[in-house]
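Our collaborator T.R. sent over the components below with a one-line note: 'Predict the complex.' Nothing else. No constraints on interfaces, no templates requested, no preferences about which chain binds where. So this is a plain run: every listed entity goes in together, and whatever single assembly comes back becomes the starting point for the next discussion.
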Amino acid sequence: MSDQNAQKKQVPAIQGWFTMPPQEPHIIASKCSLCKGYFFPPAQVCRNPNCKKDGAMESVMLGNKGKLEAWSVNYFSPPPPYHAPDPFVPFGVGMVSLPEGISITGQISSGYDEKNLEVGMDMDVVIEKLYEDSQGNDVMAWKFKPAHR
Amino acid sequence: MNEVAILGVAMHPWGKIKDKSVPELNLEVAQKALKDAGLEWKDIQFVVAGSDPWSGVDGLLAGCRLSQKIGNNGIPVVNVYNACATGGYALKTAQAYINSGFCDYVLVVAASISPSGFFGVTTVGREDDPNDLDSQRFRILGLTNPTGFAFMATYRMHHYGMTENDLALVKVKNSKFGALNPLARFKKPFTVEDVLKSPMVTYPLRLYELCATSDGAAAIVLSSMKAAKKHTRKPVRLASVGIATPKYPDPRSGGYGLDIASDSGDLEFANGMGVRAAYNAYEEAGIGPEDLDLAEVYDLSSAFELGWYEEIGLCKRGEAEKLLREGVTGMGGRMPVNTSGGCASFGEAIPAQAMAQVCELTWQMRGASGARQVEGVKVGFSVNAGKQGNCSATVVKK
Ligand SMILES: [Zn+2]
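Returned assembly:
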């Protein structure tokens, strides 16, 4: 068993959208060098229609502390490509505003009792396992965890 | 003035329709609407059809397949799809062609046969394709449409004091109207207790506070005001059609919290494109919210209905719950909302739903809404919003 665990890899759900452990947990966005707009998921071209569009898009790590704007707890299994555990476990989802003025949606960190969620509460960005893929790897993504600040 | 005449309307009852295809449904409602208008198929000079994304090529080329069924006569046929606002975009297209002088008589038609349950991913590709944002919202976030709708609900609870009781009350109000509409799919009048007993789908939204996926069909025959004079002394008028899409940096500009992220900018949970569609319609009709006698608003969830009260200007931000609780938007109220029964009683037949709203307004203006008729109405309004931030609104006048 320990052998298997040793070979178990952590793979990002999408390459380049967030940092991977053991790095500090951050969501990675694009920042336009001209209009200074932030974009997530990362953008090749600035999505501000009033921007001249010939600026460089810089890859930046967004601040990893934010505030919960809105949330829900999903009690029914979403359709694929959601990889639901069997039996299904309800999970929290929230919209969190990050310091750059961008708001990102993510699942609430597993193990947190979603019933205690409250709009306005402090949240930390974490990188956690989403599901196990067919090769036995842990597929990782960003989630949000209520913080005690 | 951009107004055009609504000469004929027709709907197939909403439900889960097992025995008819999209072309058959379109044929049926087209013939009914033509009859209602006192016109024949050969009078129609232009067709705009809403496409049904779940019916293959028959659905995509809905207007062409209808034309083939009813008898090809060589006229232009446009097939459009703009999610829940498809009907609005179809009506806008028809209105623009009439007002450009290109044609006098247009048939607008749409039908849908949709899958049951949660609307899933409509794109097919590699599961980890970073450009397939719809797949990623399901895969990484587990974010179904109802959960996106629930964000607005927890936002309203926190900021405006909305309660679970208010959410139930919207369903109760709409089901009271729906019980009187023979075209509605759900005709049972609900009590608050009934609704609160239904299973929690995505907190705080319960099963009966969410719009079901339905099948249905609607057709509307429009004409220029000049041509209408040949057929009727005083036609109901489509005074305006407002349409809108997201505009940077609308918060959540892909629509309704269903995006993975917002643009950077104002983070208020606002429906910018819905507001713009509504005010485009007001402006084109030369009226304001104070002129309305009734409205059909898109209640994909109970919380959405409350949001619309504010977004279309029936009240200020944060006052929608008061309007609901005081019965202003209910049966016999000063400003009845969703006299058809709304999505709560119909479910959603996506490409036909915005047209169904206009059919209801037309019947209300004609005084033909039977037991749910609102007395003395002169100005009606409809508004909706859907995937990718597609929004539309109309003003219908007696
Ligand atoms: Zn820019």
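Summary for T.R.: The domain at 63-146 of chain A is CATH 2.40.50 (OB fold (Dihydrolipoamide Acetyltransferase, E2P)).
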